[in-house]
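Priority: low. Protein: LysR family transcriptional regulator. Input follows.
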Amino acid sequence: MAGKLQLPPLQVLVVFEAAARHGNFTAAGNELGLSQPAVSQRIQLLENLLNAPLFERRHRGVQLTEAGSGLYQIVRASLNEISEQIERTRYQRSVLRIDTDMGFASYWLLPRMNALQALIPGVEVQVSTSPNDYNFRDSNAHLAIYFGAGNWPGTQAQRLFPESVIPVCNQSLAQEIGGNPTAQRLLDFPLLKLPETRPQRWLSWEDWFRHHQIRGQSHGASRTFNAYSLVIQAAIEGQGVALGWRPLVTPFLASGQLLQCGPEVRTERGYYLISASGKPLSAQQEKVRAWLLDEAWHFHLNHNPLPEYK
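Result:
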């Protein structure tokens, strides 16, 4: 461990810097709100501590000695660094980071960003997305919203939304499929998919058909995309039938861009609000956590049950 620093009082160094910069004790005193004798007294104290003269006293001011000039360069640079760091700290914006996946960020969180920002004015909200499963050790987020079973070690997880999945397509394809279609009927149309994962992270078309006790193969040309936003866009353009996760597809159902074209399937998985279990949230983070839970509750209140598909 380093020893104790051998330094004179900071105020003495501030007075020395001002006197050296002005070349005049009176001008230094005017800047610092001190009298000329008070400045002279502090300079004398510093010279006694160093056992060396720092100024040559002249009739119309003072001039640094060689020892004084060397000390001034160091003191001036150090006080500048301290001042700049204080300014950076004073005006540094608070930051709140939320980690999630691209689908949730795009379709649920982004439309609510203005309301979130109004909740914590002056705080920079950073949203980071990843296609991978949540990893507590790799994340430096204050809060995270991820899809899974809610069992991430080292975290507290509260479910926002259960995994609630419905087939969706655009209006043109829905007319072709027909009203009140059976699960079997969808095998005749292109199925829009995400890549398979091991282990399977979310409901697949195979899972959906298995839930309805259907083992057949799709007769349409299925298409696989590496991002859920592409799956949804393909469905909007009528390229096939997609699995729609609530609440992600709810805005498209409300606008009529997508229609439900098959029965719902629910699982025990879902989107969870995650925070570190061993680290208490700040007041501002707790405020956001409560807001997210409240937003999810209002969503359930306003959107349950699902409308009948026809």
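Residues 10-91 form a domain with the Arc Repressor Mutant, subunit A fold (CATH 1.10.10.10). The first strand starts at residue 55 and ends at 58.
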